[in-house]
Amino acid sequence: HPDADRATTPPLGASHPTTAHGQADCPCIDLAGVLYRRSHRAEGPTVTLPLAVLSLVMFLVATPVVVGLFLPRGHTVSRRVVIQQPREVIWERVADFGGQATWRSDVKRPVRLDDVDGHEVWRDAGDLALETIEAVPPERLVRRVVANRMFGGTWTVTLQQAPGGTAVSVTEAGEVYHPLFRTISRFVIGHDRSVTRYLTDLSRSFGEVARVEGART
Prior knowledge:
It contains five helices and seven strands. By secondary structure, it is of the alpha+beta class.
């Protein structure tokens, strides 16, 4: 009956019937609401995650730099080992820069560079070039870092007679210019690492077990 159809069909623009709880009795509206709420919940972490990661990266990079700003640029570390060999024999080994690849674990291919003021210059570990500024056989050898923007300082090797052999001492008076590497050198690598490894390799090259002594300062 036409009147019955008009009675059951709501006019255009009229609100949909609601349930007893006040919710719209229309499946399409309910579905739209669910999708809207889910999409907004999913967008939250997507927006904030990159910011959180970026903040963490900035914190991890900035913290070591800030710590390095409060650390001294210079450091001094000394180590000592006794090797059961005459001073002259040990001197020949430590003064032969070209042959250090045969016994040093951190030297792969030493390269002779141009002399500086008549002094030998060798690049022996990575990009580190060292100039021999003093050589007093068989007692004292001093080498200085040349033209390096990250590190500077000197290495002093002394040989003294000891009971049954020779006391070999190495003193590193180093400087680390960049605050980040200053922190890494102090807390991660350790200022004494290179000196200790040098003396350990030197002892092993003579078939001896290294007993490295000394204190960091």
